[in-house]
Amino acid sequence: MFGYDVGISGGVTSMNGFLQKFFPEVYNRKNLGNNAQGNYCKYDNQKLQAFTSSLYISGLLATFVASWTSRRYGRRVTMQIASAAFIIGTTLCAAAQNIVMLILGRVLLGIGVGFANQAVPLFLSEMAPYKLRGALNILFQLAVTIGILAANLVNFGTEKIDPWGWRLALGLAGVPASLLAIGSVLVLDTPNSLIERGHLEEGRRVLEKVRGTKEVDAEYEDMLAASEVAKAVKHPFRNVIQRRNRPQLTIAIVLQIAQQLTGINAIMFYAPVLFQTLGFGSSASLYSAVITGTVNVLSTMVAVAIVDKVGRRKLLLESGVQMLVAMVTISFILGFQLKDTGTLPSASAIVVVIAICVFVSGFAWSWGPLGWLIPSETFPLETRSAGQSITVCTNLLFTFLIAQLFLSMLCSMKFYIFVFFSACIVCMTLFTLFFIPETKNIPIEEMQGLWASHWYWKRFVPNDPVLEQELKMRGSSLERQRDEEMANRGVA
Question: The pTM is what?
Answer without folding.
Answer: 0.75
